Amino acid sequence: VYLDQARYEDALEVYGQIIRSDSSLAQAHFYAGYACLQLKRLPEAVAAYQRALELDSTFVPSYHNLAIAYVEQGMYLEGVAAMERVLRIDPQSAVSHRFMAFFQRELGEYERAEEELHKAAELDPDDAEIWQALGLIYGQQGLDAEAESALVRASQLAPRRKEIWKGLGRLYLNAGRYDE
């Protein structure tokens, strides 16, 4: 309940009590890590997710959030390593491929990011976030036609998402297409 209400300090206290009474509950460590992540107590979040994974090495959400905690600390290589473990466990996870693409993009590995997004799009072709991210990657590489195509696809899937329209607008303005 506390997590749903964004009362992360309270949630952390509750999960701390649960962990003190039974430290073998991987999900309690996961939720404690989530509360820490939301509170920007990133080293504590990393420790909680690592403990959750020691208890259940196949719990994919722990890897996702561990990777996010690493990346929020600027530890992109560690985030990539966590996502590589996830993809070994569940190579059919579009979300995991999307996360990996984000981390690769932050490292300047645009081709690898593009590959990951193509895998994600094959797995979930109706995910607007994938197409939006693909449009961003193409745009960063100067591939304007590909960027436009991906962003148009994203706008069709999520017509109310303002960030997509802003991306298309920037693309059109940079190309001198003022009437689009």
Concise account of the structure shown:
By secondary structure, the chain is mostly helical. 75% of the residues lie in helices and 0% in strands.
Average pLDDT, to the nearest integer?
Answer: 94
Total of helices: 10
Low-confidence stretches: none
Shape: elongated
Sketch the topology as an H/E string, one letter per element.
Answer: HHHHHHHHHH
Radius of gyration computed on alpha carbons: 19 Å
The percentage helix is over 70%
Q: What summary fits the major beta sheet? A: none
Structural class: mainly alpha
β-strand number: 0
Q: Strand portion, in percent?
A: under 5%
* First-last Cα distance: 46 Å
Key words describing this protein structure:
180 residues
What do these coordinates show?
The structure is a single chain. The chain is built from 10 helices and no strands. With 180 residues, it is mainly alpha-helical. Helix 5 (76-89) packs antiparallel against helix 6 (94-106) and helix 9 (144-157) packs antiparallel against helix 10. The termini are far apart.
